[in-house]
Write a structure and sequence with these properties.
Elements: H1 4-33, H2 37-63, H3 83-110, H4 114-144, H5 148-158
Helix pairs in contact: 1-2, 1-3, 2-5, 3-4
The structure holds hydroxy diiron-OXO moiety.
Amino acid sequence: MISKQLNKAINEQINKEVYSEYLYLAMSGWFTAQNLDGFANWMMVQAKEEHDHAMKFFNYVLERGGEIELMALAKPDKTFKNPLNAFKMALAHENFITKSINELMDLAIKEKDHAAKSFLQWYVDEQVEEESNADKLVKQLGMIKDNVHALLMLDRELAARVYVPLVITAP
Ligand code: OFO
């Protein structure tokens, strides 16, 4: 059984993951409005992955005999200065999520909850990829600057990203 403290912290993390979904959905909508459909696709795939991250936590809480308590969602921005600015925000957000996952892991270690540690390791590893993906795009957009041709080439590349659903064990 999961401790009350870890249960509460994971419920808060579910909110952060659903907010991530919300944020990337907002960015996807904005990119579509800018006629950058590849960027919009990348963000839409990201939003779906965030939903999976939330659901993986959701099922885990129930599997460990805990209680789900959903919290109010914050409102993400609806417009972004430019593509680089949007990806800088995405990277900053992923850095924040990594910190939050690490704090969950610290708590599981403190509580000697080995099952939670094993479960959380997936998120620790996932965050390496999350930060790296956003960081790469921040760097590429930094190189592109105002070069519209290069921006459209990157847009084509990002159109190829495909959503692969996460296999989540039901409680
Ligand atoms: Fe769930 O990893 Fe991004 O936020």
